[in-house]
Specification:
Elements lengths: L5 E4 L9 H14 L6 H7 L4 H12 L6 H15 L10 H8 L4 E6 L3 H10 L8 E4 L11 H10 L6 E5 L2 H9 L3 E4 L4 H6 L4 E2 L8 H5 L3
Parallel strand pairs: 1-2, 1-4, 2-3, 4-5, 5-6
Helix pairs in contact: 1-4, 3-4
Length: 217
């Protein structure tokens, strides 16, 4: 395996504790669309961006009075409204970023909109860690397609085979695999833990060591 030169982090439920924000946004959107939130439904779109969630819900519920674009934009608006206050980090996130600083190029590739990513980076003082960040809204297809990871690697000027991804969702891990990247996962649910396909699975970012990454090469 080639030496790892870059690390790409998913943001939501990987670096930042945003599950409650997303759930609230999804509940509000589904109520607006005349449907109800369930955990079973949420697992089907976990890891997708807001626009793709809106499209998925439109496909599943087929509301007669709402267009596809209305559902896409409304889900995105519901999500952005939730990113008003400081978003706390996941356990071990800042410690891991400090551990990796200077050893690898680092970036964020998230399904959240730009404004949400910027909010998380600024509120946790993470600006100095990342060379760039992308949202899957910037590319043709969101996760589980590999587009956002491939675009991020290109911006970092690294080969996908030299890239490690940190993810929490099955869709995200699938996207990393399809990009030809190594994936470490901290699953955000028991269902994800049972189904996620990653090179290594952790209970928390606190468990990750520099040696874990160095031993990949």
């Amino acid at each position: 395996m080639p030496k790892i030169k870059a690390i790409i982090f998913d943001m939501d439920d990987t670096l930042a504790a945003t599950s409650a924000l997303w759930k609230k946004a999804e509940e509000n959107f589904l109520q607006w669309a005349g449907a109800s939130y369930t955990e079973e439904l949420a697992q089907q779109y976990k890891g997708m961006n807001a626009l793709d969630i809106g499209a998925y819900i439109h496909q599943v519920t087929q509301p007669e009075s709402l267009s596809l674009e209305q559902c896409r934009s409304q889900m995105r608006e519901c999500l952005i409204k939730e990113y008003q206050d400081r978003v706390l980090e996941m356990p071990g996130a800042s410690n891991l970023l400090n551990l990796l600083r200077g050893n690898f190029k680092m970036a964020i590739a998230s399904g959240s909109p730009h404004i949400a990513i910027e909010k998380v980076i600024n509120s946790n003082h993470w600006g100095g860690f990342f060379e760039t960040f992308l949202t899957s809204e910037d590319v043709k297809k969101g996760k589980p397609s590999p587009d956002v990871f491939l675009a991020t690697a290109k911006k970092l000027s690294v080969d996908p085979s030299e890239t490690l991804v940190f993810e929490d969702s099955c869709h995200g891990a699938e996207a990393a695999s399809r990009a030809g990247m190594t994936c470490f996962a901290v699953p955000s649910s028991e269902q994800a833990r049972a189904q996620i396909k990653a090179h290594r699975i952790y209970n928390s970012l606190d468990e990750v060591t520099l040696q874990d990454i160095q031993h990949l090469s």
